[in-house]
Amino acid sequence: MQKIAINSGGEMNEIYRSALVVTDENVNRIYGGMLPQNKCVIGAGEANKTLLSVEKIAAAMIKCGVKRSDRITAFGGGMIGDVAGFAASVYMRGIEWSFVPTTLLAMADSCVGGKTAVNVGLVKNAIGSFSLPDVFIETKYLNTLPRREYESGMGEIVKMSLLDPLLYEFMQGKFNAETAIKHCVRLKSAIVEKDMYDHGARKALNLGHTVGHAVEVLSGMPHGTSVLVGLRLELLMLRDYIPHNFFYELQAYINKYLPELRYNFDAEAVAVIAMSDKKNVDGISIMYPVSIGEIREAALDRRTFIRLLREAM
To answer: Structural domain boundaries of the chain?
Structure first.
């Protein structure tokens, strides 16, 4: 079981007992003064989710004398968790690590489940591993989160709500970040416990991600916003598979969090990226809901995928 503490106030103790703290330039600009000297600062944003960043972190660990019995801490958003976690998982064949997430998306989603990875070219998360960190979620860090990143986090929460009637019902009322995070952590932890290595139940978490990952790569939109765009388009692509009334209910729900956009993505470019998705077996895999909590999978050949996506746009 993954250790996850929410608003415990213990994150700074964890940071200061770590052999190295990994963060990015944006987070360091705001919180660098309270971090220890043994830190590694990498560039911010998805463009730095690379093996070069992993190499920089590994070099910093060597310089700090990090041993196999030590641990490091990732302090930042999902990108920092992915890169620092991957570095920890391969340094000296694996050391322990902790994660103090500072974004809504990381608190509600990426801090749970132990997926770590870096991108290669246009392929997201092409090289990675499973490595569970201890997690210290402190919602006070949301006070300095840019609106764009907050909205990105909402995208993953909306996606998660399609997996659980309790969270979906909560999302129809007044929003509270801490409550939403607790719902998401509970839900995702239960799914991961059943399917740690992403062979079955965990695939439901990929709602919106097949098209969403491609949208993220091609447009530069934040991850959670891209997932919402992907979810909207995937629902349109598979509307014949979804009960009529439920389809329109979901469209109205998504529209509350994602304003109408004019889509001009190249459907063939989206297909190229979608074809590299790790969950594909017999065609391009798309997860879709038929009711809240009931998720199914469709596998489309490349030609059908492109045709349906063009119709959806």
So the answer is: 4-144, 147-312
3-state secondary structure the chain: CCCEEECCCCHHHHHHCCCEEEEEHHHHHHHHHHCCCCEEEECCCHHHCCHHHHHHHHHHHHHCCCCCCCEEEEEECHHHHHHHHHHHHHHHHCCEEEEEECCHHHHHHHCCCCEEEEEECCEEEEEEEECCCEEEECHHHHHHCCHHHHHHHHHHHHHHHCCCHHHHHHCCCCCCHHHHHHHHHHHHHHHHHHCCCCCCHHHHHHCCHHHHHHHHHHHCCCHHHHHHHHHHHHHHHCHHHCCHHHHHHHHHHHHCCCCCCCCCCCHHHHHHHHCCCCCCECEEEEEEEEECCEEEEEEECHHHHHHHHHHHC
Chunk the chain into consecutive blocks of 10 residues (it has 313) and report each block's average pLDDT, rounded to whole numbers: 94 97 98 97 96 98 97 98 98 98 98 96 92 98 96 97 97 96 97 89 94 93 94 96 97 87 84 83 90 96 94 90
Spatial contact of 161 and 256, defined as CB atoms under 8 Å apart: no
CATH class of 147-312: mainly alpha
> What fold, for 4-144?
Rossmann fold (3.40.50)
What dihedral angle (degrees, nearest 10) is formed by the CA atoms of 253, 258, 262, 264?
A: -100
What is the helix, strand, coil percentage profile of the chain, to 5?
A: 55, 20, 30
Structure confidence at residue 199 (pLDDT): 83
